[in-house]
Amino acid sequence: MKELLAAVEKNQQLILDTERYIWKNPETGYKEFKTSAYMAEVFEKLGYTLTMAEGITGFYTVLDTGKPGPEILVLGELDSVICPDHKDADPQTGAVHSCGHNAQCAALVGVAAALKEPHVLDNLCGRIKLCAVPAEELLEIEFRNKLKKQGKIKYYVGKSEFLYRGYFDSSDIAFMVHTGQHYGMGTGSVGCLSKQIIYKGVAAHAGGSPWNGVNALYAANCGLNAVNAIRETFQEQDIIRVHPIVTSGGVMVNAIPETVTLESYVRGKTFEGIEQANRRVNRALCGAALSLGANVEIVDFFGYAPRNDDPNMIRLTAKAAELAIPEQNFEVSDTFSSGSTDMGDLSAIMPIAHPLTGGTRGHAHGSDYEIADPIAACVDCAKLQVAMLYVLLSNNAAEAKKVIREFKPQFASKEEFFKAVDAFAKNGNRITYNEDNSAATVDIE
């Protein structure tokens, strides 16, 4: 354990240099070309042989201890968010790492470098898969729609895509440490369904003959109000969150808007809760369109599964924190977060942990976010991860084998998981009108 921690400290400057480079070169999901190339170059200089993701960003590599045992998957996320008001945002794209993924990548480099130091693997068994994964943040939906239509991706977020491609088939346990304002972890976080909502009206001269038009913007406003009106019907136990935005609201002021586009998530603690809430949301959206004689196209696709951290992994993470960062107060709580992550997809089929380390300041995804303490955000983060590997894979991987043996997956296989996820996907106009403009059918499923 001491050798592992010393190996991280020895590579501190490489860790900090990585954090700064990625902070200064933010890129959003499936566009992380510079970030992926930089990370790949660092890994190759450390002596790793990489498997690059075909046709998209990201890669993985496997380190074999030479002794039989489980495979542990360790992840770092490549992508940024968009926050144009941040002082360090890219002036062209608005991209900025006010998500902390730059620190994750730096910590992953620290883990990779530490594991290449002499003798650090001597007391470990099994295999360690290190993965730089793209597109955790679910944004720029139109861009990802194009990638999907081109056959470059099947799923909109990176871990789902990598899982679907088989990159994680050999892995038994996964973990990823996220940067935050404190050290600790809860029990999980909500999943989400992503929605694109396109209200369709009829264009007309806004001054001369507005009665000839059907105002898609007014229909969208009614839809937003209708969704707001059903919020009290969501039960607290389901942790439902619905937060739509308008991405296109018309093209010129002198024309009745013909098309208006919204995007939203429906978040929830369980698959069942998300499904039930989404039916209510769709009913509200369709009712608004009906009230004005408009139509509405709703494109639903699954974003993230609810994340449920494995109880044994929570216990082992706390144990690792005592070994690696005893000076920090690592708090384990029963909190279930209302944020979302695609680590939830992995938690549906394998035991995972998603703890936090400190080091940030400001609001996550906000214009005041920054890495205030890079040692805490990056170096401590790497130390915690090598300690987790030590706890899992030392002593003939007794702890890892216990985790695997006692884990109860929500789905028996990734195929069953994707079948459940794909069942949420649906698109098309939701209202069919008769010739007299009366509604023939309304589809809220």
What strand order characterises the main sheet?
Answer: 1-2-6-3-7-19
What is the 3D form? elongated
Separation of the first and last Cα atoms:
53 Å
Which architecture of the largest domain per CATH?
3-Layer(aba) Sandwich
Annotation, overall tally of beta strands: 24
Superfamily (CATH H level) name of the largest domain: Zn peptidases
Question: Main traits of this protein?
Answer:
alpha/beta, Alpha-Beta Plaits, 5-stranded antiparallel β-sheet, Aminopeptidase, 6-stranded mixed β-sheet, 13 helices, 445 residues
Task: Reconstruct the topology from this structure.
Layout: H1 2-10, H2 12-24, H3 33-45, E1 51-52, E2 59-64, E3 71-77, E4 81-82, E5 95-96, H4 101-115, E6 127-133, H5 141-149, H6 158-165, E7 173-175, E8 178-179, E9 184-185, E10 188-189, E11 191-200, H7 216-229, E12 241-242, E13 245-248, E14 259-268, H8 271-292, E15 295-304, E16 307-308, H9 311-324, E17 331-332, E18 336-337, H10 343-347, E19 352-353, E20 356-357, E21 360-361, E22 370-371, H11 374-393, H12 398-406, H13 414-422, E23 431-433, E24 439-442
Parallel strand pairs: 3-6, 3-7, 7-19, 8-20, 9-17, 10-18
Antiparallel strand pairs: 1-2, 2-6, 4-5, 10-16, 11-14, 11-15, 12-14, 13-14, 21-22, 23-24
Helix pairs in contact: 1-4, 1-11, 2-4, 2-11, 4-11, 7-8, 9-11
